[in-house]
Amino acid sequence: MNAPQQQSRLQAIVDTAVDGVIAIDGHGIVLMFNPACERLFGYGAEEVLGKNVSMLMPEPYRSGHDNYLRNYRESGVRKIIGIGREVLGRKKNGATFPMDLSVGEAFENGQPIFVGVVRDLTERKAAEKALRESAERMRAVVETAVDGVILIDAFGNILMFNPACERLFGYQAREVIGQNVRILMPPPYRDEHDGYIANYRRTGRAKIIGIGREVTGLRKDGATFPMDLSVGEAKQEGESIFVGMIHDLTSRKRTEEQLAQAQKMETVGQLSGGMAHDFNNLLTVILGNAEALAQRLKASEGLRQLADNIADAAERGAQLTQRLLAFSRRRVLQPTPVDCNALVRSMQVLLQRTLREDIDLRVRTAPQPAFALADAAQLEAAILNLALNAQDAMPNGGVLTLATEEIVLDADSLGPNTIRAGRYVSVSVTDDGAGMDKQTLARAFEPFFTTKDVGKGSGLGFQWCTVLPGNRTDT
Amino acid sequence: MKTAPRLCLIDDDAFVRDALALGLRDAGFDVLTAPGAAAGYDIVARQDIDAVVIDLNMPGANGAQLIAQIRARWPALPIVAISGASVIDGQPVADVAREHGADAALAKPFRARELASTLHRLLRDGGGA
To answer: What is the CATH number assigned to the segment(s) B6-119?
Structure first.
């Protein structure tokens, strides 16, 4: 190839290059400005050739460029030459844009010339900015989310644990990152989780992934809570990662339980209210006839006693109806100021006669009269039945303590939807029997619930009726 | 000639009527019975009645309205309301009964002698107070 051919080929390369090519002399005067540069800077070559290259730079680079070249000439210290870096360019219309500038040095007739290759970074920068902003938005969403967001790898190791997760589980993110997610699960899920992930990796069959379900979470303090877990799968560098969204169901569960209890009470109320009228009429018939029979059997003591027994049974039936109505709050309670100390002491003799000999009855009353607004008859009935239940809980005998105490309940010590904060009298019946397991305790105050055999008693459910909002201490 | 106080006992339940009438007769009353409000009012209007016992919860007839009607016409006639329910429309039965003009109210079930004793007291002291 001869020199003109070579020259022509080089010119073609420069003219068709996608990147800008610009050549300047040792004083910064533009010697060459290819078409790509024209597109980049908006100048025609004729507007730039012979002018100082600093016109293509925004301040402060524009003012400093001549000094930079002089400094390089004198000291040989390079900042860009032979290296390249990201700088800002200035278009003809004054707009600036990011560009990657690589500069090489050559000599022409013994004088240095510098060839710069300019690549427009505008799009790349915009993409980077969009990515950065997207990541920041995503981080803001995750950091401020009310629900927990947790990220684990394909082996169950925790990669991310957002602040909501910290609040839910009681762990700081730094405590759990890198740990297996099992630590957030109570048994038996804890031991099954690794197997579950392995199974999913092997078979691709998902149980929660992509579906979500209600599970139980384990807090740092060992407490468990219901939560809704939805899990999504994503790929990061070819590996699966799983994103779990955790919604605390504690409050919703509590509301559901309260609603279920209210519905249950409403059902009992409707049943007992509907039944009471007819049942009371039947009892009136039984009682009236038994009384009339007793009247006519005065001369026959044994037969009269049978009629009296019928009448007594009818009256007990009436009490049961009243208790059922009171339980469902359809019977109007008659609250009056009652000294619970006096009431408890007055019941001592009755209880001692009623309870088995192997029951050691102890009474402990508050030092001051303990007045409460209560239905005395219902309170007596409740105490009697609690005492009988306590006795049943101690088949081999034991201590039964009947106590009164004035207490103050504040908002913190009350659960939701219960009695109001204020001063109350606590009347407690305590036995030293086997106690109740968690399941029994949860149902202890349900109507008709009992752990006793059929015909051995009604359990505690009916006694709940005396604990009503408004029965506040009135001392 | 009347030798015993005459009562009109109004209750839609025949067994209740019979049982209470039995007990009241044993207690010395002359008892006429009616199964509903219209028949009861008719007896009170036509017979020489000394006191009335009215069931508040009767299907098809309102015991409370009957009490009010009787009270309006016979202001001093002793009236005792009886009821198998303890609450009517959220109000205690005793309040409903008194509001309409009854002198006393008893919640079923009760012993006949309890009703008899209430009637004796009202006959002695007078009704419509």
So the answer is: 3.40.50.2300
